[in-house]
Design brief:
Helix content is about 55%, strand content about 15%. Helix 2 packs antiparallel against helix 3 and helix 10 runs antiparallel to helix 11. The chain has about 500 residues and is α+β, with helices and mostly antiparallel strands. It folds into four domains: about 70 residues; about 100 residues, PAS domain (Beta-Lactamase, 2-Layer Sandwich); about 80 residues, Helix Hairpins (Orthogonal Bundle), CATH 1.10.287; about 150 residues, Heat Shock Protein 90 (2-Layer Sandwich). The strands form three sheets. It has a five-stranded antiparallel sheet with strand order 2-1-5-4-3.
């Protein structure tokens, strides 16, 4: 049975083959549209991110269409050359089968290319997404401030390690939970700011307080901003919190230094004001004593003069503390220094109902190289610090010393409240104090530490076995000083440096 004339028309066969190719290619495009890495059913956020996604989508399809068109052009060009050279003498039925086969083969080639192209682009997109997430996690983990991401319901979406360090909550404790760092007032303030941020308002920055997991309030500087989430399309909020505790601590230190400077000026002014009447009183008492040599009231005059001289010495000490003189290193007898210190502070201890005792037998005849004023300031700081740590009654402070390895070891021991072991490493830091607020500046032990180091010695504090603490001070012996059974001749490094100078 023969075929109709139209069936043997080569142009008809070409048209049928192209229609078949188009149908198969359309099916492949439908599959690729569903599998495209740029395709998503989620709503895209507005702004630059949406434009970038749209540009990537257009580039993807344009590249795929151009590459497919190039493949079709090559296939048809090669087919035309083959047809002109080798297929001129075949029958129309064979030509029909060849055109159909060409259409099917072209569809398979294009489908294979499209699947490979889509798979390659998907792998590239997934790799870029993985790298982007890694960079995001690294940036979040190494941020200097606490970073918290939350939604409109104040539920935590992200929480970096610095937030854990600042607030005390671990990431597992807060993820998908309402913000636990907000008090009721701070929560209301934040809810008032959210609508403005959603509407594109500028980032908000303020200083406020946040709650730690132990209930403690911490001072922080907060910066809030808002941006769209690329995955959900919803607006999310970024909170960056800077810890202000160290800055506030430094500010308080500066205020303390300013207050101490003012107190020093006031002490100097007070000393200068008192010096004149005290000098006049001593002069009058001396004149009165000369006139009343044999008078029965002579002893009363001596006691008045002794009291006036005590006041004068006290005023001189105020002047010495208010203006630090140049350090003058001299050989100081340890026993005489301890006697003088204890005599000066015994009235203060008696007034507080505290006992002050000392044993200078082991250091009798020993000398140290140092500045007398600074040595007195050193023991004054240690004794007053010990007295402040004593209970109201039955408190006692002991002062003593010994000689060991060519150095004088002096100690100040009390039976007070002691120092927590975890705070011992900080005990000599400036402005660090274990006393209640308003009961100390935290400078006493720091000053003592600096004085001992300037004299080439060492100082350390240990808790007693029962109660209280002991402060140990090691100072080098003065050169050329000997003491039987206790002090041996020892060359002092500080003295050697002075002799060279």
């Amino acid at each position: 049975m023969g075929y109709p004339a139209v069936a043997y028309n080569p142009f008809f066969f070409k048209l049928i083959g192209q229609i078949a190719s188009t149908i198969q290619f359309g099916k492949v495009f439908a599959v690729m549209e569903r599998a495209s890495p740029m395709k998503t059913d989620k709503p895209q956020p507005p702004g630059g991110a949406m434009r970038r996604g749209s540009d990537d989508h257009i580039w993807f399809w344009l590249t795929l269409l151009l590459s497919c068109a190039t493949i079709l052009t090559v296939i048809f060009s090669v087919w035309e050359q083959v047809e002109l050279r080798f297929l001129r003498d075949i029958s129309y039925q064979q030509m029909h089968y060849l055109y159909t086969t060409r259409g099917i083969a072209s569809s398979i080639i294009l489908a294979t290319w499209a699947v490979w192209f889509v798979s390659r682009e998907r792998r590239k997109s997934e790799e870029e997404l993985r790298r982007s997430r890694e960079r995001y996690q690294i940036m979040l983990a190494h941020a200097a401030d606490a970073v918290v991401l939350f939604d409109s319901d104040l539920r935590v979406l992200e929480w970096n390690p610095q937030a854990t360090s600042l607030y005390g909550y671990s990431r597992e404790e807060v993820m998908s939970q309402p913000l636990k760092t907000l008090g009721s007032q701070e929560r209301d303030e934040l809810r008032q700011e959210l609508p403005q941020l959603k509407e594109g308002g500028p980032p908000v920055e303020l200083e406020t307080k946040r709650l730690r997991n132990n209930g403690e309030l911490v001072d922080v500087r907060i910066r809030w901003s808002c941006f769209p989430d690329l995955e959900s399309g919803q607006m999310v909020f970024l909170e960056v919190a800077t810890d202000l505790r160290e800055r506030i601590h430094l500010r308080q230190k500066a205020l303390e230094i300013e207050k101490l400077t003012s107190m020093g000026r006031m002490a100097a002014g007070t000393a200068h004001t008192l010096n004149t009447p005290l000098a006049a009183m001593l002069l009058r008492l001396e004149m009165l004593r000369d006139r009343l040599k044999e008078h029965p009231s002579r002893e009363e005059i001596d006691r008045l003069e002794s009291s006036a001289r005590f006041c004068q010495e006290f005023v001189q000490k105020l002047l010495q503390y208010s203006r630090r003189p140049e350090t003058t290193l001299k050989c100081i007898e340890v026993k005489e220094l301890m006697d003088s210190i204890c005599t000066f502070f015994r009235p203060t201890f008696s007034l507080r109902r505290h006992a002050l005792s000392y044993d200078s037998h082991a250091v009798n005849g020993c000398h140290i190289l140092g500045d007398r004023n600074q040595m007195e300031a050193l023991f004054a700081a240690l004794l007053m610090n010990a007295s402040d740590a004593l209970p109201v009654e039955e408190g006692s402070v002991a002062l003593g010393g010994m000689v060991h390895d060519g150095q004088v070891e002096l100690f100040v021991r009390d039976n007070g409240c002691g120092v927590p072991e975890d705070q011992l490493p900080q005990i000599f830091e400036p402005f660090f104090t274990t006393k209640k607020a308003g009961h100390g500046t935290g400078l006493g032990l720091s000053i003592a530490h600096n004085i001992v180091e300037e004299h080439g010695g060492t100082i350390h504090l240990v808790n007693n076995a029962s109660r209280g603490v002991t402060v140990w001070i090691r100072l080098p012996l003065c050169c050329g000083q000997t003491h039987s059974n206790h002090c041996a001749t020892e060359i002092c490094p500080l003295a050697a440096e002075q002799e060279k100078a």
